Amino acid sequence: MVKIADVASAAKVSPSTVSRALTKPELVARETRERVLQAAQRLGYQPNKLARSLRKQKSHLLGLIVGDILAPFHATLAKGVQDAAEKHGYMVFLFNSDEQPEKEARYLQELQSHLPEGLLIVPTAKTRQHLQSLQYLRNLPIIELDRTSGSPGIHAVLAENVLGAREAVEHLIQLGHRRIGMVAGEPVITTAQERLEGYRQALEQAGVPFDEQLVACGYHREEGGYAAAMELLKRPPSQRPTALFVGNSEMAAGTVQAIRDLDLRIPEQISLVSFDDTRWAQLIEPALTVVAQPAYEIGFLACEMLVSLLQQRKQMQGHTLRLKTRLLIRHSTARPCERD
Amino acid sequence: MVKIADVASAAKVSPSTVSRALTKPELVARETRERVLQAAQRLGYQPNKLARSLRKQKSHLLGLIVGDILAPFHATLAKGVQDAAEKHGYMVFLFNSDEQPEKEARYLQELQSHLPEGLLIVPTAKTRQHLQSLQYLRNLPIIELDRTSGSPGIHAVLAENVLGAREAVEHLIQLGHRRIGMVAGEPVITTAQERLEGYRQALEQAGVPFDEQLVACGYHREEGGYAAAMELLKRPPSQRPTALFVGNSEMAAGTVQAIRDLDLRIPEQISLVSFDDTRWAQLIEPALTVVAQPAYEIGFLACEMLVSLLQQRKQMQGHTLRLKTRLLIRHSTARPCERD
DNA sequence: TTGTAAGCGTTATCAT
DNA sequence: ATGATAACGCTTACAA
Q1: How far is the CA of A15 from the C1' of C5 (A)?
Q2: Which of B1, B47, B283 sits opposite A280 (nearest CB)?
Q3: Is the CB of B171 under 7 A from strand D?
Q4: Residue B282 CB in 7 A reach of strand D
Q5: pLDDT, tens digit, for every residue of A47-80?
Q6: Which residues of chain A have a CB within 8 Å of the CB of B70?
Q7: CB-based contacts of A27: which residues, under 8 Å, 6+ apart?
């Protein structure tokens, strides 16, 4: 590994001059600067960021913890973050909590030891308490993505979950549905809460009484969605929902399976609308009506927010950014069946 | 940030003793050790990995560059790598080349400055030449994933592309297809070459003459797949393939679109088999017959291989690991239409 | 404008 | 078994 000292002797100057020529060119005479730059080039010099970070007490590193890189939503978040980080010259250390608080704790600790300058995180239920014991990390600017941990004064970039859910359910109501079921996620997660709230609001506004029998909460993954949908769809035909609103795309996949296993037809016998747009939602037939989230933008803007926080002196008050969702009406929603 | 010196004074020992107590406990008296450990615990001490890496000249960092984290195959690779890395106490620095050689070059450089101990990469067409100028990186153990750059003596973990493709095409032939088209990727990528080769071999073995008119190469993404499929399917009915073999899942999505736009029915009018298994391939109807790649295992084993290389003294000879694919026969393949 | 020297937090070496 | 010291590669006062 060629280091500053090597460049220095090659250019016949002191190490400090090399350092200056490279990082503060205006402080060094043009002639010297060129000599140094050439030597550096010739030797293939690359600054050692470890040493630089240690000395400057700045790592130019950002930490990112997502729930599950295999989920397109999270992968897209991560891409947005990375693109924004790159734009500002930051590196991103990416981890998966796999939605497991213990893993999250481990990674937070690991991350801390690399002295990141800021943290972006899709929190789990325990994020708040994990952060408490991490003295260094918790004093960093932190931005939460997608959902919040409820930590006081924290920054967050989220989707308009309530509104998005309301629009989806309003769409169903407008089509004439009254018995609308919801496949909701685990209530500990704020997105699940908010989407449920949107569902409630839409019903209330339309004067449809809220019936908790029509809400099935469960594990937020595909299996959970399958089980929850089954529970709702197995009710006697006269009480069975004519439409289902699903809280995320993974549960939606389970819901589609359940519907198929029961030999129901979309949208003739059951209308379906889900949060999250995915490749498969577009490709199945009928294509799914969905509430699309601006995943890339959430990641990108969160990172921009973090960088701007880093560039200011003082910690700003906690700021929450809410990004609009878009209801994409495709072919899984229609008027309810006549028998109804 | 609490450092070793703080722990040292709290435990009334020297910094060296703290360092030893933490990293080589057997070298320090039990009593002292406990005092140190307690002090460290109490103060919430976390070693500064920057300093440690600088001093030890070992970063415990691995670099990973994938083509596109948004593609499920690459995301899964990354997950496998990270899980294996974690198992051995390594951290992974993850980048996306977006399949662009220029981005790859930038990230390789950035990566190098953090002194990773090894590199895992899904190479682009220029990886080989990029590595040439990176003196530090190119002397590291490097493992290529999914495809190879053709660098001499390099290690790689790949799928059995030739065999996988051959099985897929043999399956079509067994069903009675003779006019089988291939939607191939860009020939610069070794996976595309190999899958094409498998296609050839299957035809040859069955005594079906190879017809280059039935092979459409193109950009490996969805648009490329759409265009290529269109080209093949728009031929006059008597020359139109009765089955299509597609080189990867993104092009397969484009192919499905093309088939639908032409109002052809799968599998009655056109059989379809593609490389890569994805969520949508399982969920569309009919579900797609695919050649599934062990993406997670490729990532995991590649990382294991890298770690074992790091733990040996000398550089081993370049070693290539080929992992088996699995032909998953679902419902997009059937006997060709009678008119044929 | 350039050089000298100290220090970032660790760990390895050498004493004791 | 423990402590003093130097060194990893870089930046930055301060001095010249």
Answers
A1: 12
A2: B283
A3: no
A4: no
A5: 999 999 999 999 999 999 999 999 999 999 999 9
A6: 72, 75-76, 79
A7: A20
Alpha-carbon distance of B192 to B176, in angstroms, equals 25
pLDDT category at B150 given cuts 50, 70, 90 is: confident
Please name the residues in contact with B179: beta carbons below 8 A apart, sequence gap of 6 or more.
B211, B214, B239, B240, B241, B242, B243, B340
Residue ranges of chain A whose pLDDT lies below 70: 313-315, 338-340
Instruction: Measure CB to CB from residue B54 to each of A54, A91, A109 and give the nearest one.
Output: A54
Burial of B267 (0-12, 13-18, 19+ CB in 10 A): buried
Q: How many Cβ atoms are within 10 Å of A234's Cβ, its own excluded?
A: 10
In angstroms, the Cα distances linking A65 to A106, A157, B111, B166 are: 11, 14, 20, 41
pLDDT for A288? 98
- Length of chain B, in residues: 340
Contacts of A96 in chain B (CB under 8 A): 79, 82
Q: How far is it, in rounded angstroms, from Cα A162 to Cα A156?
A: 16
B31: the nucleotide nearest its CA (via C1') is D1
- Give the mutation candidate from A94, A103, A263, A332 for the B interface (greatest B CB count, under 10 A): A94
pLDDT digits (tens, 9 = 90+) for B293-326: 999 999 999 999 999 999 886 667 788 999 999 9
Q: pTM of whole model > 0.90? A: yes
Give the C-alpha separation, B234 to B256, whole Å: 14
In chain A, the residue whose alpha carbon lies closest to the alpha carbon of B255 is: A283
Instruction: Measure A60 CA to D16 C1' (Å).
Output: 34
Q: What is the pLDDT of residues A146-204, one digit of tens each?
A: 999 988 889 999 999 999 999 999 999 999 999 999 999 999 999 999 999 999 999 99
CB contact under 8 A, A78 and B93: no
How many residue pairs bridge chain A and chain B with CB atoms within 8 Å of each other?
A: 108
What local confidence, expressed as pLDDT, does residue A282 receive?
97
Other CB atoms within 10 A of residue B263 CB: 7
Residue nearest to nucleotide D7 (CA to C1'): B55
Q: Are A320 and A298 in contact (CB under 8 A)?
A: no
Q: What was the pLDDT predicted at A340?
A: 44
Residue B111 CA and nucleotide C10 C1' are separated, in Å, by 22
CA pseudo-torsion sign A109, A113, A114, A118: positive
